Amino acid sequence: xxxxxxxxxxxxxxxxxxxxxxxxxxxxxxxxxxxxxxxxxxxxxxxxxxxxxxxxxxxxxxxxxxxxxxxxxxxxxxxxxxxxxxxxxxxxxxxxxxxxxxxxxxxxxxxxxxxxxxxxxxxxxxxxxxxxxxxxxxxxxxxxxxxxxxxxxxxxxxxxxxxx
Length: 164
What we know:
The protein is of the alpha+beta class.
């Protein structure tokens, strides 16, 4: 059962998927509608799941489930992953991009993990740079810690090596 994303409780489990490119408004609208239809039919062992979907910043797809209603099973989680794999194959988009997303000049940029140290050394990534933490496990942490300054994220270790 689909509910509005902003009505998901803080304890709701989430998964953040990052596209490998900025999405057009047409792509965002299509993805949002397609995944809303999927979430509306989402079930675990025949029991309807209460879920939500949101495409944010033309780059991220967030899937949420309220497990106090019904627990998501391995199969239902696999199904949600399959939605994005299939949609990505159809649209030529990789929703499983593992690069680090950050904000620079009001635009979302990405960098491969291996290049972070170089961007820090060049001053492109600073302690104040907003980093997206796509590993947040629930809505509460998503609201409070999805976008954090680099110095307050796992990236902080790179600033210590540059200044040392």
